[in-house]
Design goal:
Number of strands: 0
Organism: Gordonia humi
Structural class: mainly alpha
Order of helices and strands: HHHHHHHHHHHH
Pfam family, one: Phenol_Hydrox
Strand content: under 5%
GO molecular function: monooxygenase activity
Radius of gyration: 23 Å
Largest sheet: none
Low-confidence stretches: none
Number of domains: 1
Catalytic activity: propane + NADH + O2 + H(+) = propan-2-ol + NAD(+) + H2O
Distance between the termini: 84 Å
Number of helices: 12
Keywords: Monooxygenase, Oxidoreductase
Mean pLDDT: 94
Shape: globular
CATH architecture: Orthogonal Bundle
CATH superfamily: Ribonucleotide Reductase, subunit A
Length: about 325
């Protein structure tokens, strides 16, 4: 008996899901598009929230910042679950190697005393700030209208947990394997005069009703803390004999650059929206003006303490 094998190409009836075809036509879609577009329900809700009967479970009115179509915003990183998890696993693996190197040589405990003081009394307490920022991001994940936005807020919330864990691991390394430094950092967060403006600020942001304003208010703090205490002190550490600080700070700087990618794109989309752009711009300018001033005051209090213990003049001159 003789067999003749042939192959036949079966053309798909369509290349992607109907909701994507409705937007872009029948053409192959990216995984990001398939995992993001129109995922969040918009209609046929069974009930309204008992705590806010004037709104739907998913409702654009949870924020003053709106988009005509929320899916005009797309994450420039094209993150959905799998690439996000893969990217962050690699990120924390790299940080783990850094910590292992620092611990194997007890480098943090060998830094000049001034740098150890700044790390213990200013930087390590920021893990509590990260925890507050995580809750603000969780609110964004819940109340943002459109899965392209809520997805980014969800990932940012997980990132904040990761940032807090990075600071915790640095604290344990600074304490030579003990949690003593973390206990002191918590006391500083609760009682240190230099940290109370920041603590008060993040707690007020946590109870802000508008999820987008909360995210932007945290960003006003981030825009000052990360350049000052991570990328900024990174250079000062190299000049001041505290290379161990530089090794850890580079990871925080890397995360902040990644965070800015989606947030800057979202702000640009809000401003350029055909229907709501003008109103959005007024809200964005107000948020930047009001929360930015308070953020600067809070970060200045931290910088003043840092300047008491390490030489920041060389950084300013550079």
């Amino acid at each position: 008996m003789q067999y003749e094998l042939k192959y036949k190409v079966i053309e798909p009836k369509r290349h992607t899901y109907q909701n994507i075809i409705d937007r872009f036509g029948d053409q192959p879609a990216t995984r990001y598009q398939e995992a993001t577009l129109d995922i969040e329900p918009r209609e046929n809700f069974h009930y309204r929230p008992t705590w806010d009967s004037e709104r739907e479970l998913y409702d654009e009115r949870y924020s003053a910042l709106r988009l005509t179509d929320p899916y005009t915003f797309a994450d420039p990183r094209q993150f959905y679950y799998t690439p996000y998890v893969t990217n962050r696993a690699a990120f924390h693996d790299e940080f783990g190697k850094t910590v292992a190197y620092l611990e194997s040589r007890d480098l943090l405990a060998k830094m000049p005393q001034g740098w150890q003081t700044v790390l213990g009394t200013v930087v390590l307490p920021l893990r509590h700030y990260e925890s507050g920022a995580q809750l603000v991001s969780v609110a964004g994940a819940r109340f943002a209208y459109g899965s392209s936005l809520s997805q980014c807020a969800s990932f940012a919330a997980f990132d904040r947990i990761g940032n807090a864990q990075i600071l915790s691991r640095v604290g344990i390394a600074l304490g030579s394997g003990t949690a003593d430094r973390l206990g002191l950092a918590k006391t500083e967060w609760l009682e240190g005069a230099h940290l109370q403006p920041l603590r008060k600020l993040i707690e007020e942001i946590m109870v802000t009703d508008d999820w987008a304003e909360g995210l932007l208010a945290v960003d006003e703090i981030d825009k000052r803390i990360y350049p000052a205490f991570y990328s900024g002190l990174d250079e000062a550490a190299l000049l001041g004999g505290a290379g161990a600080y530089s090794l850890f700070a580079q990871h925080m700087t890397t995360w902040f650059k990644d965070q800015r990618k989606w947030l800057d794109a979202l702000i640009k989309t809000w401003r350029e929206d055909a229907t709501h752009g003008e109103a959005n711009a007024a809200v964005l300018d107000r948020v930047e003006r009001e929360w930015g001033a308070r953020a600067q005051e809070a970060v200045d209090a931290l910088l003043a303490v840092a300047a008491d213990h390490i030489d920041l003049d060389s950084l300013e001159e550079a």
